[in-house]
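Forwarding the complex inputs:
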Amino acid sequence: MTTAGMRRGGVVLTVLGLAGLIALYWMCFFWVSTEVNQGVIQRIFYVHVPAAWTSFLAIGFAALASGMYLWLRDDRLDRAALCAIEGGLVFATLVLTTGPLWGKIAWGTYWTWEPRLTLTLLLWFIFVGYIMVRNSTEDPDKGKRFAAVVAIIGALDIPFIHLSVVWFRSLHPEPVVAKPDGPTLPGDMLATLLFGVLVFSLLFFGLFLFRYAVEALRAEADLRARSAA
Amino acid sequence: MSTYLTQVWAILRKDLVLEIRSRERVGAMCAFAVLTGVLFNFSIDTTTVRPNEVATGLIWMTLIFGGLLGVGRTFHLESQDGALQGILMSPAPKDAIFIGKLIANFVLLFVVSLLVLGVFGLFFGIDLGRNLSWVVFVLGIGSLGFVAVGTLFAAVAEGTHLRETLLPVLVFPLMVPMVIYGVGAMMPLLSGRPFTEVEGNVRMLGAFALAAVAAGAVLFRYVVED
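Prediction (whole assembly, two chains):
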């Protein structure tokens, strides 16, 4: 895809995502029924869970692109990994903001060492580590390789972190969708949640394409500056 | 295969001889470990907490901080005068270099971890007589996992201008499983519980260490290539 095509794709997906976000908020506030036990605060769930899903999608995507980059050495793959990481950082920040807000009311405290919250915090730091490594080398190619290694190791460590923090303590509400005997969430809540996941994924890929187009333009500008000099 | 082992041994032997002759890293790490024990002792109000209950956690934290101090400098000496380039240009495959470096670091950290165990046992009044061999075994697996991640990222950090400053940001988030399973296995062992009770934790610790060694051996070549 050309850079202009990327940008157009980015615009389309982002506009769709933003329109979806408005619809999602409408569903959250006016359409979906209120949860019996938790009351109105449970509605933050429709933002929190899709954001979490998106940030894990981002690290998986970035690790895959990084592995491919180390193999094929195509700068486009490295750019894709960087853009996914930056998007992931945004969505992980969303999770870490909405989680404690909900936790303050539901658990009575902003922070607990609840497994999934802990995992997201560590994921956030892996994103930050990736960006720091990338920006702290003089040779850009070295930075790309180092960052790719960070993304791959980070993604590989996630199952271990997940298992260990679950073993350490579990306070989080149990999963309500991905369970062996089918979802237990009532229909309208499930619909809102799945719609949220769709909207956040659209937004993620929209922002991803935008960011990718910017990186591609930057690489092109660098190339032109170098050939002019 | 035997040439591979010879290559690993050459790197390992070089690092150990350097360390035995200079005693730079091991000296700093041991001093760090003992002094941390002293500081921890004053940072805990021993009238409100039972020191031997928190000691396990402190041992692992000291191991990680002290380990970072030593492991972070794995490639420091060789970054001078292009020595690392010399090693990388040798016919030894990159993973053999990594494994050699890793074993050298492991020996170093394991020695320090035994000292930490002894010193903390003394300072915090832990009865080390019970399950000592299992405790040492758990410390060994933990050290292996730590040096695997640490050696790889030491090579990364050496190539950046932030150097060792970058290391905690990269290594600490990944160390969470090690701390959880390490402490989870060692705490019951030190209070005299049988090994069968913590076997699951030790297995997870072992899986973590093996995965870290394998990932490091595969990815190291991408870090040092030029």
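The radius of gyration of chain A is 19 Å.
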